[in-house]
Amino acid sequence: MKFTINRDHFSSGLQLVTSVVGARKTMPILQNVLIEAKDGLIRLTTTNLDLGARCSVKANVTDQGSITLPVKEIGRIVRELADMEVSVETSDNSKATISTRGSIFNVIGMDSKEFPPLPELEGQKEFSLERKEVISMLKSVSYAQSINEERYMLKGVFFQFSKEKLSLVATDGRRLAVTNREMSVKEGEEGEFILPSLTVSEIEKLPDIGEQMNISFTDRQVSFELKIGKTEESNSGFKESVYLVSKVVEGKYPNYKQVIPKDDFNNAEIERELMQECVHRAALVSDEKVTLRIKPDEMEITGQSIVGDACESMPINYKGEETAVSFNPRFILDPLKSITKDKITLEFRDDMSPGVFKVKDEKTETLTFLCVVMPIRTD
Questions:
Q1: Taking the CB of residue 164, how many other CB atoms lie within 10 A of it?
Q2: Contact by Cβ (8 Å): 268, 245
Q3: Are the C-beta atoms of residues 5 and 57 closer than 8 Å to each other?
Q4: Which has the closest alpha carbon to 206: 257, 243, 172?
Q5: Is residue 8 domain-resident?
Q6: Could you tell me if 32 and 71 are in contact, meaning their C-beta atoms sit under 8 angstroms apart?
Q7: Residue 218: CATH number of its domain
Q8: What is the per-residue pLDDT across 200-252, written as a single tens digit (0 to 9) for each?
């Protein structure tokens, strides 16, 4: 195998697949990246057996071939090279020479035949969505995933393709975030899966390339694929596609709709960014609890601890009775940071009831986002 490649393009490809690598010391080859060189590109693949990543990067391939090399080590080497043109050559199946005009590195690898192949999906359901929209939807709910190992079904984001919409859901038992997108799903194509938190993180970190994201899933696995356009090939160095394939979280996701309050609540229209700033400042003295005192046309946000106290006030659109309710400030800030709409609705009832942040589509008035946050008792 022999090829030359742009240093930055090579480094970007290695960076994309490196974070998938796990810590399974019993299988050393899982610490390696499979490099396959052919037809004007190199293909980079890594896996931890739960999640696999693959991308292609353009290269000038002189001799076709393949090898696996320790991905973190060669990632560091390539990143630090001084010259832009990098040459990679293998003399056998277990050693590669990485060189530029002034540097030569000999790296011991392993035979590519020992590398476990990425799984192929069979009988899958397939959907195509805009990449930016999928990532935006994920980021609007992923902060609410559970980190509790015992509640493994909540350690991920729930995807639900129903007849009229796609819903993404995450909850840790103390808050629930839901985002919806209208879409037409053919009869028999409905489906759902729980995407593991590690895979969620990898998708959120994908490079800004590829307009469409193809999502395919079965009962056991799900894949995400970005097709690379010709213009993006010349700019980024990526070719063909970027591909992630992951196991899904086994089990049935809880009925999250039971958590969403159905009673009549008071509601206030609020400027999202202003509320975010006020809560952030109040939390500087109390990062465990802030109290929202909601009055006609005004909301006071207070924090108090042994350090001292703080009070912020802001105008709101509200005409009801005065109400006070306390929350963990992080549970308020997370949804406020994740959405982009200027105006949001806060629904509330009393100090024992949850608060609900809502965003509706300006044209259709359909609900596109909600976040239910459980209160903290006010002493």
A1: 10
A2: no
A3: yes
A4: 243
A5: yes
A6: yes
A7: 3.10.150.10
A8: 999 999 988 888 999 999 999 999 999 988 777 767 899 999 999 999 999 89
